[in-house]
Amino acid sequence: MELQPAPDIDKEVKNLIEILSLDYLNHRRIFCFRSHGSTSRARARIWGLPRIFLIALGCQPAYCIEVISEKFDRLSEKDKQYTLIHELMHIPKNFSGALVSHLIRNMSKVNILLKKLYE
């Protein structure tokens, strides 16, 4: 699997954060990559930096959003935005480096935010 920085995704994530007023998200600490050659069924995934690594490395919380080129790039623009919003909803409001699971009610906000985006 090959990973490359994805400036187009960076730009879209920044726009989504601004348009949707997701002020708790620090877009400067969210890094976006495009992978090629993955056999994953996912369209995208998000990676957090656990607290123990933050302490060991003496760094601030950060997240990486990886879009799987084979799946993500052929989506419609609306589905791409849905996918990115979904990944952003995995980031907790305290921006701690942890990830929110699919079981938390916050994940149901994806459709609400998508509607807001298209109003």
Automatic annotation (TrEMBL):
InterPro entries xref list: Put_Metallopep
Domain annotation Putative phage metallopeptidase: ranges: 2-98
Superkingdom per UniProt: Bacteria
Protein name per Swiss-Prot or TrEMBL: Metallopeptidase
The species this protein was found in: Candidatus Shapirobacteria bacterium CG08_land_8_20_14_0_20_39_18
Lineage, broadest ranks: Bacteria, Candidatus Shapironibacteriota
